[in-house]
Amino acid sequence: MPKLGEMTSIGSGFFISADGYAVTNNHVLGGSDRADVRTSDNKVYKAKVLGKDPVSDLALLKVDGRTDFSYVKLADQAPRTGDWVLAAGNSFGLGNTVTAGIVSARARDLETGSSEDFVQIDARINRGDSGGPSFNTHGEVIGVNSLIFSPSGGSVGVAFAIPADTVKTVIPQLKDKGTVTRGWMGAQIQSITPGIAESLGANNLHGAVVVGVQTGGPAAKAGLRRGDVITSVNDEPIKSANELTKKVYAGAPGSSVKLSMLRDNAPNSLSVTLGQLAQSQAPAGAPK
Asked: What's the predicted TM-score (pTM) here?
């Protein structure tokens, strides 16, 4: 039982190894460095928080003392739209719950601050299910339940899961060093909307427009300006601000990226030497 004045959060998670490594959402843990884990056989274990990543909304826990936990496998292939999915969790804190549905969309950019392309599912997800796994019909985890869109806070059949590929990228870093290393350039960007494209006289324009540049940051040092329209990174076209953010995050601090862009409606380019994204600079989407 929590002590008077303590805040508790209820969520879900799953073991990824027999020796007690478990995945959940960062927002389930909040600022805590410990958690109680209740397994499906109703046993409770103390878990240590090895690392948390607000950008992906993932966290890694470790339960010591056993090497025979039942665990799940992350899927090697991304799901297809229309594939069946089973979502497991702890709905409203009632205990183990499984719901069924389909993958209703892929690569969904929610513009919540996260750079992840969510898997949209229509299996019912409720409060308490955050951090739980979504399975394909082979029993493999295709995503980690993370968000719901609902004006009332309950399931309306639209839920979003962090893709298994993101888990495979983030969790090893959390295990090794407790944090995730990402590139940073110090610029605020937004996707090109039809209205912005029309104002620039280019209706088919795609990419990201710079709406702010941080003083003293890598982008400012490279000469990036407010109003620049970035259309490609290292000669690879981008369609949105989310794509640009993902490419910057994937870059190693100290490496250089080439940005092709329009400046005053004329083609231009420059190279930015990336810095390292700090936890305090990391945008995090607010769970719904």
From this structure: 0.84
